[in-house]
Design goal:
Layout: E1 8-9, H1 11-14, H2 26-44, E2 54-61, H3 75-87, E3 94-100, E4 117-123, E5 128-129, H4 140-149, H5 152-158, H6 160-164, H7 167-176, E6 179-185, E7 189-192, E8 196-199, H8 200-204, H9 206-217, E9 221-225, E10 241-242, E11 253-256, E12 264-265, H10 268-276, H11 283-290
Parallel strand pairs: 2-3, 2-6, 3-4, 6-9
Antiparallel strand pairs: 1-5, 7-8, 9-11, 10-12
Helix pairs in contact: 2-7, 5-9, 7-9
């Protein structure tokens, strides 16, 4: 994959955990693309479909255990449960697509509690940008300006170049365009609590948002599902909310369509609490904020 100089990094660089936890490589990328090809062929060759728009796709990013914490619940399983509570039931053969550069700690048995959900695991390093779109919580003015100046559509556009130069993202886009509704969780963070909380979609993989936007542009609805569980909440998981409007106020989801953009905000109560503390940085957070990593592509 061609990568702009200094633009794309490896997931292992974004975590404190060992690089060995991210074992995806070019060989696993070829395998992941092969799995997408097989799924596309299965869907596109379905003689019983009068249209290529299938009802639902469940998309879980970031693997199985959030932030590599073995005590946390399984992101994909939680997402399936939340979507089921919204839909009431799944139609036949609803795909659950799990994409991760981590070792995938999820099996078909994990989602076997739900009929008609078919697990597809893609072990691959998604191209990740080094640029931080939404500054950390300690940079109050800069963060406020970025939140006020961006929306899901505008951040998706920041992922255009990376998406158009990635064979995997192009293939994923082709698949996403086949579905009427795409259910995605809004709860995945690169966690350097308490001062470094980066949203996986916005700060690191806007190419995924760009792929989703291509589906939205042809008529799909993306539903960002709130899967936050206060019992298992980590610091970062409190620091971001989508703005819900109209009949979505107080709902556990927000929708993104061709005619409806989505904005976001920090929770007001939490923001005021942080600002009263003065947004003090730690030495560790300042060092991480200024850290420069050597330019490299995900294939090195």
């Amino acid at each position: 994959m061609a990568a702009k100089e200094g633009d794309v990094g490896s997931p292992a660089e974004m975590y404190e955990g060992p690089a060995s936890a991210f074992s995806a490589n070019p060989a696993s990328e070829r395998e992941a693309i092969g799995k997408l090809d097989a799924l596309l062929k299965l869907l596109e060759d379905d003689p019983g479909k009068e249209t290529l728009m299938y009802p639902d796709l469940i998309l879980s990013l970031g693997g199985s255990k959030r932030t590599m914490d073995p005590r946390s619940e399984n992101t994909a399983v939680t997402l399936v449960q939340k979507v089921k509570s919204l839909l009431g039931r799944f139609e036949d053969s609803t795909p659950l697509l799990v994409i991760s550069g981590e070792n995938l700690d999820i099996s078909a048995q994990d989602v076997s509690f739900e009929e008609n959900v078919e697990l597809h695991r893609l072990h691959i390093r998604v191209p990740m940008k080094r640029e931080i779109v939404i500054p950390g919580v300690e940079m109050v003015a800069e963060r406020d300006a970025a939140i006020a100046g961006h929306s899901v559509n505008s951040i998706a556009e920041l992922g255009r170049e990376t998406a158009e130069n990635s064979h995997f993202i192009r293939k994923l886009t082709q698949l996403l365009k086949l579905f009427r509704r795409i259910h995605v969780h809004n709860d995945f963070w690169l966690d350097g609590h308490p001062y470094r909380c980066e949203n996986f979609f916005f700060d690191r993989t806007p190419c995924i948002l760009y792929a989703l936007k291509q589906a939205v542009d042809v008529g799909a609805t993306v539903m960002f599902i709130d899967i936050t569980d206060s019992k298992n909440a980590r610091g970062c998981r409190k620091h971001f909310q989508y703005v819900r409007e109209g009949d979505e106020v107080d709902k556990a989801f927000v929708t993104w369509t061709r005619d409806k953009d989505v904005r976001f905000r920090d929770p007001p109560v939490w923001t005021e609490k942080f600002r009263k503390k003065g947004g003090k940085r730690t030495r560790r957070s300042t060092r991480r904020l200024r850290r420069k990593t050597k330019s490299t592509s995900q294939y090195k």
